[in-house]
Design a protein that fits this description.
single chain, eight-stranded mixed β-barrel, binds ligand C2E, TIM Barrel, Alpha-Beta Plaits, binds magnesium ion, elongated, 658 residues
């Protein structure tokens, strides 16, 4: 069967391009000798056939030899393919043109023109076909078209001249017309057919490319998340129908982030490719390996009878990584943490299967990495919630900031209850989980490092609102922002504060930063340095939740601070004198005493009753915050609390950017 290979480059694969050129080379190597043979036979039989012409006697051996030379060239060089094809097209076209010209104008009388035409010119279609075989030889198509036109012009000129001369040879004219018509139609049909096939191939290639991009990971060529989801669903459906098992391995390369950060992303990519190649060798033909993201891979095992089999497969993957990887002349040791989850034992759907396998992997990470664990119902649920929170928080920060809002709680004068400052408190409303309390997500943000970005967002939002209130009321109100120890220790923190202030044109005096005693963990000297710079700028500093952490009074003395906030647990005890009131009283008294000497302001947190307010006032506290005055409220409600009427805006409303 004739397999027509088309001259279209398939952009996705270099390999297919090569095979296609190789196939053509093979065909030409086989058939050029036939062309040469035709010339030599023609040459040898010229005299016996009785159709001898001087043109043939000279040109045939030349053409035959040239073809043999081209054959030789092609047999020694793969690269010569384009040249050989072009040489045949140009050489043969010239030959046919010259032969026709010679026959019509120079052949001696008595030459049987019609016999000569059929003997030679029916080879023309070969040249037409040749001109289409190589995408690189597009010029060949131009040559062929020019040649066809040339032949028509030559024939027409000849016929016209014989008509005018009154010696028209109807036989020759008939042959010329037929010859040119047949060739032109053949060329038109061939071009159209080839173009149609080309466009079909292009469409198919494009579709394949789109599919490849949609289903495969560009870096490693492995299946991507989408393909994994599809395939997992399919396999689960089969397993459901025939009561089979599906095991899923979640593999994360240990320490990849460090590798990436220190050696750069290119080296990181290279390592990932090398790792995926090694792993792929261990993966069976019925297994599916996909890259989830970054350094995370998922392997769906095709045939697993038992959990031990899945464990064995995971160990094999680990073993594949033991030999160090050579990158840029250095050898790198790589290990992996793998979590296993099995349908139907541990989960009943694809998404849960993935989540559970991920949790099991996370447990391996937390217990020292480089190991394999199977999902455990009891312990992994907590881990899973944390993982999910972390992931969703990241999404909220990057793609859905509308899930995050600030609420504000007033800090009041304990004497007059007048509003003195406001504390900004972060709220996260997740579309599926609803309100997630800061006590749950702030520690996760701290552990994952997300707090740096999250804290920056809070700071900027707080500055924006503070500016808005200032514009509304004509007088500034201090906004107090919570800053985690880790966020504070980040080298870019000071810059973040100054940028937030500058971008919103807020006076630094209207910003306060609340820190817990935990900040001193990063070294008192460094902390003091940053605090001094902030205060120098005009930003005030408060120590939050005092009494719950290290509670060293020395910090109050040594750190450059303005305010100390007494933790609400002590305030609570004050209101219930029967429960350890002495300690709470003594502590609040001591703080008040120290604060007075050090010229610090005191804010009591969590005041819920009038009794608490009175006791605190008596002890010398100036300011307080708590449900007695107001719960944390959204921005709009705070406006009312501040007695700000939006209609009394002092500046045009365009200042209130949302
Ligand atoms: P915090 O800074 O000590 O904030 C005061 C917390 O006490 C708030 O809890 C507030 O709602 C609550 N509270 C206020 N008055 C009363 C009261 O009278 N009774 C009771 N029982 N509670 C009261 P919230 O908003 O849940 O925040 C908890 C903690 O989360 C905050 O404690 C703070 O440490 C942290 N946090 C909140 N927002 C942020 C933020 O933007 N950044 C950082 N790093 N931490 C934040
Ligand atoms: Mg606070
Ligand atoms: Mg507090």
């Amino acid at each position: 069967m004739l397999r027509l290979k088309l001259p279209v480059r398939v952009p996705t694969s270099v390999a297919s391009d090569t095979t296609y050129a190789d196939e053509w080379r093979g065909t030409l190597l086989r058939f050029i000798p036939f062309g040469a043979l035709a010339f030599f036979i023609g040459w040898a039989l010229e005299i016996p056939s009785g159709q001898v012409t001087s043109f043939d006697m000279v040109v045939y051996p030349v053409m035959g030899s040239m073809l043999l030379l081209l054959e030789l060239l092609l047999s020694v060089s793969r690269k010569a393919l384009t040249f050989v094809v072009m040489a045949i097209i140009v050489g043969a076209s010239t030959f046919f043109f010259l032969k026709l010209g010679w026959l019509l104008y120079l052949a001696p009388t008595g030459t049987d023109l019609q016999a000569q035409f059929t003997e030679t010119l029916f080879w023309i279609p070969v040249v037409y076909l040749l001109s289409f075989i190589l995408a690189e030889a597009r010029l060949g198509q131009v040559v062929v078209r020019a040649f066809t036109v040339g032949m028509v012009v030559l024939a027409a000129a000849f016929m016209a001249s014989t008509i005018f001369a009154g010696n028209i040879d109807w036989g020759v004219s008939y042959a010329l017309v037929e010859l040119n018509l047949a060739n032109t139609v053949f060329l038109a049909l061939t071009s159209t057919f080839i173009r149609y096939k080309e466009s079909q191939t292009r469409t198919r290639a494009r579709m394949e490319e789109v599919e490849r991009q949609a289903y495969y990971d560009a870096l490693t060529g492995l299946a991507n998340r989408m393909r994994l989801d599809d395939e997992l669903e399919r396999r689960l459906a089969v397993a459901r129908a025939d009561g089979g098992r599906v095991a899923l391995l979640y593999l994360d390369v240990d320490g990849f982030k460090v590798f990436n950060d220190t050696l750069g992303h290119e080296a990181g990519d290279e390592l990932l490719r090398a790792v995926s190649r090694r792993l792929r060798q261990e993966v069976g033909p019925t297994d599916l390996m996909a890259r989830m993201s970054g350094d995370e891979f998922v392997i769906v095992l095709g045939e697993v009878e038992t959990a031990q089999a899945a464990m064995f497969a995971a160990r094999k993957l680990q073993a594949a990584l033991v030999t160090p990887f050579d990158l840029h002349g250095l050898s790198h040791h790589v290990s992996a943490s793998i979590g296993i989850c099995i349908y139907p034992d541990d989960a009943s759907d694809g998404a849960t299967l993935l989540r559970h396998a991920d949790s099991a992997m996370y447990r391996v990470k937390r217990s020292g990495k480089n190991g394999v664990q199977r999902y455990r119902d009891d312990s992994d649920a907590v881990v899973e919630r944390q993982r999910n929170l972390e992931r969703e928080l990241k999404t909220a920060l990057t793609a859905h900031p509308e899930q995050l809002t600030l609420v504000f709680q007033g800090i009041h004068d304990l004497e007059t209850t007048e509003l003195k400052k406001v504390e900004a408190l972060l709220r996260w409303h997740h579309p599926a989980w609803g309100h997630v309390p800061p006590s749950e997500f702030i520690p996760i943000a701290e552990r994952s490092g997300l707090i740096v970005t999250l804290g920056e967002w809070v700071l900027r939002e707080a500055c924006r609102h503070a500016k808005e209130w200032e514009a509304l009321s004509g007088r500034g109100i201090v906004v107090s922002v919570n800053v985690s120890a880790m966020q504070f220790a980040h080298p870019g923190f000071f810059r973040t504060v100054t940028d937030a202030l500058e971008d919103h044109a807020l006076q630094p005096e209207l910003l306060e930063i609340e820190l817990t005693e935990g900040i001193v963990m990063h070294g008192v000297d460094r902390v003091t340095e940053t605090l001094k710079r902030l205060r120098h700028l005009g930003v005030s500093i408060a120590i939050d939740d005092f009494g719950t952490g290290y509670s060293s009074f020395a910090y109050l003395r040594d750190l450059p601070i303005d305010t100390v906030k007494i933790d609400r647990s002590f305030v609570k005890d004050l209101g219930a004198p029967l429960h350890a009131p002495q300690f709470a009283l003594a502590l609040v008294e001591a703080i008040a005493h120290v604060a007075m000497h050090l010229d610090l302001k005191i804010v009591a947190e969590g005041i819920e009753t009038e009794a608490q307010r009175q006791v605190l006032r008596g002890l010398g506290c100036h300011l307080g915050q708590g449900f007695l005055f107001s719960r944390p409220v959204p921005r709009a409600e705070l406006r009312a609390l501040m007695h700000l009427n939006p209609t009394e805006e002092r500046v045009p409303s365009k200042t209130f950017v949302n």
